[in-house]
């Protein structure tokens, strides 16, 4: 079975641009969460989606948004990119929302110049 | 709110020596605790977890961690490390009813030397 897949793996954007990151969960998993991992730090929770509904949001500005599709895949969108948005963005999938094991993808490395 | 503290940013150790990576958490409610490992340029892999029951949990590759509620700790140990254990280790916490929102520590870089 395929694990959590994220695309693209690497991305370079200019300040002020918009970016869309994509995630496909493990087959059968209905929940997707997004995390931002800045170099040298632990991952920070951004969003959780379950059955296409937002179930949790971390302390991130409104420039960050996400959605989940009927096939449970998800997109993370970031508008008006700042240099500080440079990070590894991780997607995690799980079967449900209550303390079930989260499986992480390889991440998308975003560099904002 | 919850928080996780990993006091050691780097831990160098010789191969076949024992190691302990420290993790302390803060939470006002019951918690679930996790250790994840991250190899260079990769995502996170679950190493072990404490949900309930026995306070000592073990992984398939020789790591173990003990949940200590009174000391609010979940330290990771291995009696004999291998060069392949070199990686970044993250402790994470979530609370009962908290969904899968994980709060991570800042990580500990374990460097195993020959």
Please supply descriptive tags for the structure shown above.
heterodimer; A: 113 residues; mainly beta; seven-stranded mixed beta sheet; four-stranded antiparallel beta sheet; 50% strand; B: 114 residues; six-stranded mixed beta sheet; 12 strands; 53% strand
Explain how this protein is built.
The complex is a heterodimer of chains A (113) and B (114). Chain A has 113 residues and is mainly beta. In chain A, 0% of the residues lie in helices and 50% in strands. In chain A, strands 2, 4, 5, 6, 9, 10 and 11 form a seven-stranded mixed beta sheet that branches. A four-stranded antiparallel beta sheet of chain A has the order 1-3-8-7, with no helix packed on it. In chain A, a hairpin with a 2-residue loop joins strand 5 (44-50) and strand 6. Chain A is globular, with a radius of gyration of 13 Å. The mean pLDDT of chain A is 94. With 114 residues, chain B is mainly beta. Chain B has no helices and twelve strands. Chain B starts with a strand and ends with a strand. The model of chain B has no long low-confidence stretch (mean pLDDT 92).
Write the layout of secondary structure elements.
The complex is a heterodimer of chains A (113) and B (114).
Chain A: E1 5-7, E2 10-13, E3 19-24, E4 31-37, E5 44-50, E6 53-57, E7 64-68, E8 74-78, E9 87-94, E10 103-104, E11 108-112
Parallel strand pairs in A: 2-11
Antiparallel strand pairs in A: 1-3, 3-8, 4-5, 4-9, 5-6, 7-8, 9-10, 9-11
Chain B: E1 3-5, E2 10-14, E3 19-21, E4 24-26, E5 31-38, E6 44-50, E7 56-58, E8 64-68, E9 73-78, E10 87-95, E11 103-104, E12 108-113
Parallel strand pairs in B: 2-12
Antiparallel strand pairs in B: 1-4, 3-9, 5-6, 5-10, 7-8, 8-9, 10-11, 10-12
